[in-house]
Input
Amino acid sequence: MKSLVFAIALAACGGGGQSPTDAGSDDDGPAPGVCGANGTGTISGPIGGVEVTPIVRAFQLEVPGEGTAIVIDEGAGACGELADSDRLVLLFCEPPTVGEQTVVDEQTFACPSSNTASLVETADGGDFAEATGGTISVDSADGACTRGSFSIDYTPNVGEPERLTGTFAAVVCP
Output
């Protein structure tokens, strides 16, 4: 499955080192929309009984020849390394640019295109829910932090289709 291949590529790419520490003293991390050292995000609620919470970090990783992913993750780790936790993944063919992008289902998503895709993965890297439509809005992308929001419809492996909304401020991994 394409998402599994992309996830393997993400894991193999690694972070190339440790992420910098946050100089701030806010133990709860930065407010949504502000990247900080580890990025941050919000997700509206559970899908099919799985809830990606608490959000520990959000990062953006480019995989040469594959595309770019923004990962909103429950687990800590170096930038670009997948943690053993549930996560929401936003997939792009190119690094995100400011504007609204259409989300398509995984079978339709192919690069090159301006479409995006998304999925919810479990700790073992399996796809729990795949997007069927929606939008991702990128508010800013400065090469160090990509900020935006999403409203995406998902079909989980178990249960009825649901919509997740949320925000992200993803640190761009080196």
Observations:
- Residues 102 and 135 are 5 Å apart (CA to CA).
